[in-house]
Amino acid sequence: MSAPGRTEGDDGGTRRARRSLGVLPAALDRRFEAVVLWSADPQLSARTAQDLQALRGAALAVAWMAPAPTHSLVERLGGATPDATPLILADSGGNGAVAVDDTGPCEVEWPQPEESVDALDRAGEAVVRKLADLGIASALSPHSAGATRMSVELMGDPAVPSTRLGFKRFLHGHGIPSVPHLAGLAMEAARQVGLDDPRVVVEGGSVQIALRDAGDVAAEVLHELWRRGVDPRDTLVVIDGLSGVPHRPAPVVVPDIREASVVLVNGGRGTPAAGMVALTGGGARVHQLLADQLRRRRRRSLPEVIARAGWSVAIEGFDPGVERVREALLTLANGHVGMSGAALGDHAGRHPWVVAEGVYVAEGPASHLLTGPVAFTVGELHAGDPLRRVLDLRTGVLHERSGAEGAGVESTRFVSLNRPTTAVLRGRYPGALRPGPPLQPPADDATVDAGRTGDTTWIRVAGSTGGITAAATQTLTRRSRPAAGSGTGAKVLDRVASYCTDPVDLPEATGAVGAVDRAATVGFDRLLAGHRRAWARRWEDADVVIDGDDELQLGVRFALFHLMASVADSGEAPVGARGLSGMGYGGHVFWDADTFVLPFLAATHPEAARSMLEYRIRRMPAALDAARAVGRAGARFPWESAQSGRDVTPKSARDRSGRVVLIRTGQLEEHIVSEVAWAACCYVDWTGDDDFARGPCRDLLVQTARYWASRIRVASDGGAHIYGVVGPDEYHEPVDDNAFTNVMARWNLRRAAAAAEATDGDGDAGERERWVELADALFDGYDADTGVYEQFAGFNQLEPLLIAELAPHRPIAADLLLGAERTRGAQVIKQADALMIHHLLPDEAAPGSLEPNLRYYEPRTAHGSSLSPAIHASLYARARDFDRSLEALRIAARMDLDDLTGSTGEGLHLATMGGTWQALAYGFMGLRPAAGMLRVDPVLPTSWSALELRVQFHGARVRVRKERSHLVISADRPVPVVVGGSSFVTGARDLEFSRHGPSWELSP
Amino acid sequence: MTRIIAAIDNSAAARPVLTMAEAIARALAGTRDAVHVIEDGDETARACAEAAGAPMRVLPGDPLEQLTLALAEADVVALVLGVRGRPGGPRPAGHLALALADTTDKPVVVVQPDARPPARLHRVLVAMEGSPGKARALKRTIQLSADAGLEIVVVHVDEEIPSFTDQVQHETGAYAREFLSRHVMDAPRMRLELRIGVPAAQVLDAIEEFHPDLVGVGWPQSDDPSRGAVAREILDRSPVPVLLAPVN
């Protein structure tokens, strides 16, 4: 990999500066990812500009805070480049900022201060009055309309001395002990007239009162960097001179930036705040600080390991017994390839593997994901203890450290989100290490061929069709400083790998080799910065915040991370039950993808949802064939599928008790046909993608409706029925008139009729009318007297058995507890079945039927499917039964983190993760797209102080935050929303609602 | 050199013990000796040993003490001995085997008087719990069996009903692979049989189904009087020799 660019004389300058200034304090002896230079001087010196430009060239994010920086600085500091690290230019007075990303400069929109400018005027007047009461004459300085700052001038009074000492005596003579007391007096006066959070600075004989000050600006700059993937704790803030720094009350000068490393250079008389490093040396010191960071990049330093609460999964030690589970939890993926989080060293019992989305080997039920060459393994690395791995969910980076602090092995690796073929590893090793080849063949699948092109090693592995071609190169340098106590120095290994995958044709080696060359030219630091930024962008649209439950917060973010990592956002995305986190379930695609995973992506990253639908669309011919094969019309999508789109469900298997059982889901579990159409409509409802709605979505609806029209039988009494199916409750099979299957089919027929009418005009009106007639006649088992859907015809006559009372614990696999026969004859169900109507199609369910169905079915539900807890969490939230909801939600959120199924080692339960998001979005936030509007109906358990979700709706980025009796909806463009049954449109200002009894009222 | 000791008494029960010891020795490419701790004469023991072509040592003294010493010899990897009764029977035989298993870290193979061990071992059934100690102990048995090229059937009986079984066609395999990964080494001729229910009954059913030549079970070395209930019951009811793998 190439080293970052450098200019002649830098090192000489650094050496000279270090000689005269001495070494930097230990707190600064580390690599930072961003530098914020906060200057009192509006002029950017040539040397500082050169330093900052060089830092950007070395992939550090850079921010320049000063009074009124100009746009012309953008080009001086490097402008926008394709892999540019962020540049932010901010007016320290709070009057705007510019951010430069890969697409060019754009204005940063600061949050508007809560208080109004009117309050500022009142505050100024109050300060004048207060001073007058003390016998001090002062006056308000004129200010422009809308300004967020005003000054009260004392110096206009000739009695006020101009010297510092004289001014202090003057204040003392009027009963004000010191300048800080004057600031406090002004602050109190401002608060008394309603300015709750004033910013006060005393400069000379002027008291400045502001809605925002430089401290706020610094905090916003850090927030902007966070939005671009840089953690505040990875940020160095250099304050060049004290002027302009706000005098806030104790304990620290700028509390909002306390997570950053703050250096005050030439602070003069001011006392540095706690946690702040104070240095002398002026411009030379600033140059030393910046040059030091540049030097670290050139020496290929490793990023710091930052474990942040709610964002990090840290695993200590190595235990062969549970290593497969840990490797799955620490999976790195980018939707195209997934790699296990196996320890890099030669631990016995580690399982490094690579899989690629949609690349299978073998045929039919035996088909499974192909494994590819492994780049994340290091030859003869002897792994010492302790071992620690930290997965940063915020940036998709896995850090690993083994051996003693300072003398062990450290590494950072990632599978690039913004360069989907690229995987990168940097490691620092003892000098004696020989890292071995950069690429190893897979353990489980045979290599077709392998070779070297220049310095790049490549390996090809073939699937039944297609395959994985990987190439990798590495450099080993001795540039890092000697490890403590070793005296031998350490080596830095940089490895870049490229994975070209194709489900149909085995890629040639040249593509992967070329991709490696290009990525290596970009270099580790820039690849890492781009990757972090890409992850930060994904989180910007998808994060969920739960205030008040830290464990659940981590579980939810863990789920969202793997959901985002598992699905490609281009081409087609066949999302297997375990995503890209393992080989479990062969990588086969189930309703898990359409029903559980897709909604999260439709609402947060529609491109990925669209790719999932593309997989179904391209398998339409197979679905048409499948319907024809059983004598039906339309499209019959398979229960379980892989590359071909044909059903790959086996016909029999052994269960956990060793018995051979028939598997009839492939033959009978047909509700998936409707769910493919439902998923397409879910995407349309969230995105408003009219082209898709009128094209592929319409085709999916029509062909699935045709299937149902040919599948439904009309009895002599005119009632329509679907005989011989399996519902989500797979304990009972086959059954007639499964309520969920029938309601889904009914919805499918009606929505298809509407879609066809909208696109075809008069078209085949007869077919549409037939669909509607069938839908209207379709039996759904609903009993208006009890408010309960009969799960299938005859369910009520089965042995009445409450598994909630019978089982020693739940969740439990009731078929193994009771035996298949007994279970089949009893009212014991595996997972939400009739209740799925309320979850997927709440508007299709009979009004008021949620609670009676929950009361009836939940005690009969074993929750023996990992899908069940999240759905019940969602429905209990809608029913305001928070205790039960949270109990179920915690099971769902910890499903893999606690390996509740005993099979997480085979991969993560992606559908449970999708269900977890649905429980929060649909259940607690009551967030649903409906008729082109976003419906919001939030509820909050008492143990949470707030729930916040971010989604995309019809192209707008929407944030919804629910606090106790407060609801805020904000969007970056107008979005029609429905709250409490009333319609509103988001605008330039947030929509804020207050709860008054059962209703929400819009705050003025 | 790998050596197997056949501890024989002065009865016809010595014959299957010698046959089993020979089969094990052959599988491990080792040798087998016979030892007889004299209690009530040694004529039958000598005759059996001579008939089997096994060199025999006659040791005086306490059987447990003598056999413990014999088993402690460096090249001895296992001891095979017979029982005249069953642990649960009217005469609590098998107590010597269990006492030996309490004092050693090497396997003790118990041969029933009516057993008909084959001249050559083909299949070993290993009853394995998921506890780390038993898994470790039985791994050695599996390793030896694998090295000998034997077919290995690992039977894992879960007493608790699992919480989840999503899609049985995948879930069973997923659980099995995870179990093997956690507790069992990889071996070329090995299969895992999953069962749910009462462990001893399930293992005995599996013995009926798979007809192994030898059954391996863990024997916990502890002071708990209720320990080893599963091993005792298998020892009591197994129609084929039982290998006790001490677990400390």
Summarize the structure.
The complex is a heterodimer of chains A (1004) and B (248). Chain A has 1004 residues and is an alpha+beta fold.
The CATH topology of the domain at 312-523 in chain A turns out to be Beta-galactosidase, Chain A, domain 5
How large, in whole angstroms, is the Cα Rg of chain A?
32 Å
Q: Using the alpha-carbon principal axes, give the shape of chain A.
A: globular
Task: Return the CATH class of the domain at 312-523 in chain A.
Answer: Mainly Beta
How would you classify the quaternary structure? Answer: heterodimer
**Order of the strands making up the biggest sheet of chain B:** 3-2-1-4-5-10-9-6-7-8
Most residues in contact: chain pair: A-B, 48 and 26 residues
- What characteristic shape of chain B results from the CA principal axes? elongated
Number of helices of chain A: 28
**Strand residue content of chain A:** 15-25%
Number of strand elements of chain A: 41
Tell me the span between the first and last alpha carbons of chain B.
Answer: 26 Å
Q: How would you state the average pLDDT of chain A, rounded?
A: 90
CATH superfamily of the largest domain in chain B: HUPs
Distance between the termini of chain A: 57 Å
Largest sheet of chain A: 9 strands, antiparallel
Task: Write up what this structure looks like.
The complex is a heterodimer of chains A (about 1000) and B (about 250). Chain A has about 1000 residues and is α+β, with helices and mostly antiparallel strands. Among the domains of chain A are: about 180 residues, Rossmann fold; about 90 residues, Hypothetical Protein, Haloacid Dehalogenase-like Hydrolase, Chain: A, domain 2 (2-Layer Sandwich), CATH 3.30.1240; about 210 residues, Distorted Sandwich (Beta-galactosidase, Chain A, domain 5); about 80 residues, Sandwich (Maltose phosphorylase, domain 3). In chain A, the strands form 9 sheets. A 9-stranded antiparallel sheet of chain A has the order 13-18-19-20-21-25-24-23-22. An 8-stranded mixed sheet of chain A has the order 5-4-3-2-1-10-11-12, with helices on both faces. A 6-stranded antiparallel sheet of chain A has the order 26-35-36-37-40-41. In chain A, a hairpin with a 2-residue loop joins strand 4 and strand 5. Chain A is globular and about 105 Å long. Chain A starts with 9 loop residues before the first helix and ends with a strand. Chain B is an alpha/beta fold and about 250 residues long. Chain B has 2 domains: about 110 residues, 3-Layer(aba) Sandwich (Rossmann fold); about 120 residues, 3-Layer(aba) Sandwich (Rossmann fold). Chain B has 8 helices and 10 strands. In chain B, strands 3-2-1-4-5-10-9-6-7-8 form a 10-stranded mixed sheet, sandwiched between helices. In chain B, strand 7, helix 6 and strand 8 form a beta-alpha-beta unit. The longest helix of chain B has 16 residues. In chain B, about 50% of the residues are buried. The model of chain B has no long low-confidence stretch (mean pLDDT about 90). At the A-B interface, helix 9 and helix 22 of A face helix 6 and strand 8 of B.
